Each structure stands twice: as structure tokens, then as C-alpha cells.
């Protein structure tokens, strides 16, 4: 993989911001190489929970693994476990092990370390391009294009303009609005943030990296997609249980499969659903679709979800 600062020269992208490099390339996924297979990553955005954002760790780990394979090998899958809470006050070290290098497939194992202990482990598999007549995929859901939808920021602004909005909700929305998340998001069917009625455990939104990445090594776009894939993902499992107040929610594991080339700085439809929740855990599945209907990425995650035993009174 080309180093982030070699990841493609800025060029004319869509809109007035077309010449701005994505912060996901220039900062978040720009690791410092300390040794041949040892890297250091720093933090761009820390959630209000003051835990490290899981997508950042997954994306940075994939960057480290990609530096340990040849330029013509592309990532086709990764499987990760979050084993300890990350500390946002110190950098993360990424230690890569070249587990196997084969004729068609190569495996790289990555350990993320803080305070001398692993906080995350990952195995990523890379493949040389191979043609096959065996091909099929699901069909993408019919949804409005992103140009017809409001961004998450615009939706929040609409809520804030309501003079009857309770002050505690206003503070919550202002906190979300102040977060410097390097992702553009346009929900297809945005839920009412202040309604406690159960909803189907499914959500769709258009997503893309903010800024310009351009045509470059496909591994760069996969690393960015790994970052994006964790945002709001586990929350899908909570949609049927909105009457409960969440006490604790973190990711346990995260897996991804990469199927077709894509641009992470172009709009993609993220289709998320939760087939099961129980035992203080929730399972979510996601599919990232290109605008032309090609299935680009599949994601699966399980996380811990602990709620107050007594349901909240209605927020209406």
C-alpha cells in the first residue's frame, strides 16, 4: 500500500471542496513507522464516551497490515477482537506479524498495544486478483439518492430550531453537532431521536469520507471503509428497545469482507440490520453498496449492550 502521503495527488473532485485531502488520509490513517513492522497511530476524533472509536482502531490496524504485503495484493477480509478499552490520552502501537505469505493469499496478524498490553487483535487476509465465472450478489434496496436527503447535521439543526425542544435534548444535540467526525452521513429514514417507540432493527444511510481521496491503491479505500463501517453500526440493535436507557455499549468483535472496488470518498449506501440480541449482546450485519448497485463490502459486528432494568417513561 502506498503510504498515506503518497496516496494520490489532490485533483478536481465534486463540489467546491474537491481539492481538499480527506482528513482520514492525512491524519487518522497516517501511521508513523517506528520499525519494519511496528507503527504508531494517533487519534483524530474521540467519542463522548472517552473511549477510542473502534473504527479508528480497525482502520489503523488495516493500514499497518497493508504495509506488510506487496502492492498487487488486495485485502479481501479481516476479523478483529476488541479486548480492552483504549486510552484516548496516549497513542496506539501496531505490531504486525507476517503470519503467512502464499502464492494467492497472504495473512497478516496485527496487535494494537497501549500501556504494554494488547487492546485489540486483528487478522487480515490479502489476495492476488483472480477471475472466476462463479459470481452473484443480492440486489440493493431502492432508496432516494443522497442529493434528495438531508445530512445528519441538517437534521439536527431542524430539531434545534424547535422552540419546544426540552433543554436536556438540546444539550445532547449540541454535543453531537460539536463532534468532529470525518464522515458525511445522510440517513434514508431518520428515526425520531426523542421517540421511545420500538422500531424495526434496520437502518439505511448514505455515507462517504469527508474530503478528497481520489483514484489510488484500493487498500487505501478499504482502510477508510473500515473506519466508516463502525460508526452508528451497533446502535441498530437498539432500535426495537428505545424505551431502555443504555448504561454501557461497546464492540466485542468486527469482521469485514471486501467484494468489489469502490471509492470511499464517493457516496455509498450503508444497509444495517440486527437479526438478534440477547444475553447483554447484540449482533449487527451491514452491507456497503456502490451507487451503481454493486455490493462492495459486507460487515458483521457483535457488541455488549447493557441497559437499565426499568424502562424509561415515554419521552413524548
Automatic annotation (TrEMBL):
A Pfam family hit: 4HBT_3
Entry superkingdom: Eukaryota
Residues of the Acyl-CoA thioesterase-like N-terminal HotDog domain: 45-127
Example GO biological process: acyl-CoA metabolic process
This enzyme's EC code(s): 3.1.2.1, 3.1.2.11, 3.1.2.2, 3.1.2.27
Compartmental location: Peroxisome matrix
CDD domains recorded: Thioesterase_II_repeat1, Thioesterase_II_repeat2
Catalytic activities: decanedioyl-CoA + H2O = decanedioate + CoA + H(+); (9Z)-tetradecenoyl-CoA + H2O = (9Z)-tetradecenoate + CoA + H(+); succinyl-CoA + H2O = succinate + CoA + H(+); (9Z)-octadecenoyl-CoA + H2O = (9Z)-octadecenoate + CoA + H(+)
Family note: Belongs to the C/M/P thioester hydrolase family.
Protein name: Acyl-coenzyme A thioesterase 8
Organism: Otus sunia
Amino acid at each position: 500500500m502506498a503510504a498515506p502521503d503518497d496516496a494520490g495527488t489532490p485533483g478536481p473532485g465534486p463540489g467546491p471542496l474537491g481539492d481538499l485531502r480527506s482528513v482520514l488520509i492525512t491524519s487518522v490513517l497516517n501511521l508513523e513507522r517506528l520499525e519494519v513492522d511496528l507503527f504508531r497511530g494517533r487519534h483524530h476524533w474521540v467519542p463522548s464516551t472517552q473511549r477510542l472509536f473502534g473504527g479508528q482502531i480497525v482502520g489503523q490496524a488495516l493500514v499497518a497490515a497493508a504495509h506488510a504485503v506487496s502492492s498487487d495484493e488486495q485485502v479481501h477480509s479481516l476479523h478483529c477482537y476488541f479486548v480492552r478499552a483504549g486510552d484516548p490520552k496516549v497513542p496506539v502501537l501496531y505490531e504486525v506479524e507476517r503470519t503467512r505469505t502464499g502464492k494467492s493469499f497472504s495473512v497478516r496478524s496485527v496487535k494494537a498495544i497501549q500501556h504494554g498490553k494488547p487492546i485489540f487483535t486483528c487478522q487480515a487476509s490479502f489476495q492476488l486478483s483472480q477471475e472466476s465465472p462463479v459470481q452473484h450478489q443480492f440486489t440493493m434496496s431502492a432508496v432516494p439518492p443522497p442529493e434528495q436527503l438531508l445530512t445528519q447535521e441538517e437534521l439536527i439543526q431542524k430539531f434545534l430550531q424547535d422552540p419546544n425542544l426540552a433543554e436536556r435534548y438540546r444539550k445532547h444535540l449540541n454535543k453531537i453537532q460539536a463532534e468532529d467526525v470525518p464522515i458525511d452521513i445522510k440517513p434514508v429514514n431518520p428515526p425520531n431521536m426523542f421517540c421511545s417507540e420500538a422500531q424495526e432493527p434496520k437502518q439505511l444511510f448514505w455515507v462517504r469520507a469527508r474530503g478528497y481521496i481520489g483514484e489510488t491503491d484500493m487498500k487505501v479505500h478499504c482502510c477508510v471503509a473500515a473506519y466508516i463501517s463502525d460508526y452508528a453500526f451497533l446502535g441498530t440493535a437498539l432500535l426495537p428497545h428505545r424505551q431502555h436507557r443504555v448504561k454501557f455499549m461497546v464492540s466485542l468483535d468486527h469482521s469485514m469482507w471486501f467484494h468489489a472496488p469502490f471509492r470511499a470518498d464517493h457516496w455509498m449506501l450503508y444497509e444495517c440490520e440486527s437479526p438478534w440480541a440477547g444475553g447483554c449482546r447484540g449482533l449487527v450485519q451491514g452491507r456497503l453498496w456502490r451507487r451503481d448497485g454493486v455490493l462492495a463490502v459486507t460487515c458483521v459486528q457483535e457488541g455488549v449492550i447493557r441497559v437499565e432494568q426499568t424502562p424509561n417513561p415515554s419521552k413524548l
